[in-house]
Amino acid sequence: MNPAALAAAKRRADAAANGASPAIPRQAGPESAARKPSSAIFNNLNQPGLSAGDEGNGVTPPDTTGAIGPNFYMEFVNQFVGVFDRNTLARVNSLDLASFVGAPSGLTTTDVQIQWDPQSNRWIYALIGFQTGNNYVLFGWTKTADPTNLPGGWCRYGVGTGSSLNDYPKLGHDGNFITIGSNVYSDTLPTYPFVTANMWAIPKPLAGDTTCSSPVSAWYFADATHLLHNADGSLAFTPVPANTADGSSTGYIVGAHDDTTAAQSKVMVWHFASGPTLVADGDISVGSFSVPPSVPQPGTTYLLDSLDGRLTQAVQLRDPSAGGIEALWTQHTVAGAGGRAVVRWNEFVPSTLSVLQEGEIGSDTDHIFNAAISPSSGGSDAAVFYNRGSGSTLALIGAQTRQSSTPPGQMDAGEVVLGTSATFDQETLFQGNCTTAPCRWGDYSGASPDPSNAGVVWGSNQLAGPAFFGFAQWTTQNFAVSTGPVSVPDFSMSVTPASQTVGVGSATSYTVSIAPTGGFSGQVVLSVDGLPAGATATFTPNPATGSSTLAVTTATTTPTGTYPLTVRGVNGTLSHSAAATLVVNPAPDFSLSAAPTSRSIGKCFKHDLQHHGHAHQWLQ
């Protein structure tokens, strides 16, 4: 809340860490990584994402975040936007952040947020633009479910906030509103004093509106004369709206009490009602937490910033293992045993201000920090992604998961390592970064549930690449992790009827059926082998998703006989086949015959007779 107070709190935490006694070994944590994890990388989806090299101007930290939708994965970092194919994580499109949001000259864009909203079938984003005395809250959404047209396929808006800098915006949504939480600082003084936490409510775009022409309103609920408070009267800090991943009309907002001056044990809850009206629900009591120490690195005296005890993201979804009640998952980095940073995570029931479960991810040797947590779309399992590092371990990205059968407050055994830094972080060209202050890291990461595959959670996080004359060389990693045994996306094929009979020079057809499994949603390219000479085949459609008609036409020269056919379907590395039979008979024809083959008849005579003056012709 107060930068000076936070710096002092970090110094106290670092001093305490230096004097801490070794911790008693614990079962939970990455030290158990030698055991086989119950989680795994899903469908080999673990690829490098955006990096400092993409943006080219050395902004740090990257503020890495991402979200998964039906067909694409999106990653946002400071100064850059990327769209990735969800089947391969190959980059489809990218653009610098200022061009994407349409920022005017002189406005610096930062603190990016991106989410998929299944209720409106759109992508939504939020960030800030700052310039002394001319600050903005920026937000927008896709015109359709397709995010690939950057920026033409997006509606983009901004609200001027003058000298009020709405720092560290957090994005959420529910059935009615896009919601943004922020911390307001005044840029009228060089110290940027804290004013208040704030919240914004923006009605969602009308269903089917692809024009960006409908009126847009944005309400805010705190300023210098209307401060935002917790239930106990203390000033609120970093309100985090939930990414509501189901059909709930109510999305909750959570904020950990500020721990920069003293340890805290409460999380405040709000929600928006119609109007919009901000409703203060009250405080939830949690385990005590305080500012975590900085993270040492091997080969240098530079420390990594583990941030503070604020919450950084939240995901809301019904939990069937708790009776289908609406639950909210969130996490923050706090001081742990042995003078190390740990990740504290919670599953709340915000409607009753209660805790379903609380857990901690720590290590006997390393610091755990900069995390994100999300349930899968199943609602009762979850994955948490984080950085892990120490004086002997370069910062890496790890993952742990839990299933519905896992005991409350625990993650399943083992850790999945998703990426490792190339070297220690040494970015020294940003506001005393790595010198008078720890190296900026984070400031957050991303996690979101796969809308197509229960048991799968996607995420993005940061790693360190080699420094370049003090400029930022961070990299990022995008990935999908299964929380337990999950069917790999695949498909099967069948052909009906199994056999068709056709005459030479005629045509026939089959129906090819494609059955997806494990959430497969791709297109299958079809082909057929085994056709007789002169015969041709076409598929309609091709590629296909559900079924296709195979039309086979024979030529007048096609030899008769029985021909086994193999119909093949290919999607990327997936390939399957189905058998069919084509019987070619001679072309239909006819013949003539006469019986008996010979016949005799008499001669014809002509007589002219006179009878009563009449003439008659007789034949005999």
Question: What does it look like?
Answer:
With 620 residues, this protein is mainly beta. The chain folds into 2 domains: 480 residues, Methylamine Dehydrogenase, Chain H (7 Propeller), CATH 2.130.10; 96 residues, Sandwich (Immunoglobulin-like), CATH 2.60.40.10. The protein has 3 helices and 39 strands. The strands form 10 sheets. Strands 15-19-20-21-22 form a 5-stranded mixed beta sheet, with no helix packed on it. It has a 4-stranded antiparallel beta sheet with strand order 1-29-28-27. β21 and β22 form a beta hairpin. The longest helix has 16 residues. The N and C termini lie far apart (132 Å).
Task: Summarize the SSE layout with pairings.
Layout (H helix, E strand, L loop, with lengths): L2 H16 L21 E12 H4 L9 E4 L3 E6 L2 E6 L5 E6 H5 L6 E10 L4 E9 L4 E8 L11 E9 L1 E10 L3 E10 L7 E10 L15 E2 L19 E2 L1 E2 L7 E5 L7 E10 L3 E13 L24 E6 L5 E11 L5 E9 L4 E8 L5 E9 L6 E9 L2 E10 L13 E5 L25 E4 L6 E9 L9 E9 L7 E7 L2 E5 L3 E11 L7 E5 L6 E5 L6 E7 L7 E11 L2 E12 L22 E4 L2 E4 L3
Parallel strand pairs: 15-19, 31-37
Antiparallel strand pairs: 1-29, 2-3, 3-4, 4-5, 6-7, 7-8, 8-9, 10-11, 11-12, 12-13, 14-16, 16-17, 17-18, 19-20, 20-21, 21-22, 23-24, 24-25, 25-26, 27-28, 28-29, 30-32, 32-35, 33-36, 34-35, 36-37, 38-39
CATH topology of the largest domain: Methylamine Dehydrogenase, Chain H
Q: Oligomeric status of the shown chains?
A: single chain
**CATH architecture level-2 label of the largest domain:** 7 Propeller
Average per-residue pLDDT, rounded, comes to 90
Described by strand count, sense and barrel closure, the largest sheet is: 5 strands, mixed
- State the CATH class of the largest domain: Mainly Beta
Low-confidence segments, given as residue ranges, are: 22-35, 604-620
Helicity range of the residues? under 10%
Distance between the ends: 132 Å
Task: Give the number of DSSP strands.
Answer: 39
Radius of gyration: 35 Å
Count of DSSP H/I helices: 3
Number of domains: 2
Read across the widest sheet, the strand sequence of neighbours is 15-19-20-21-22
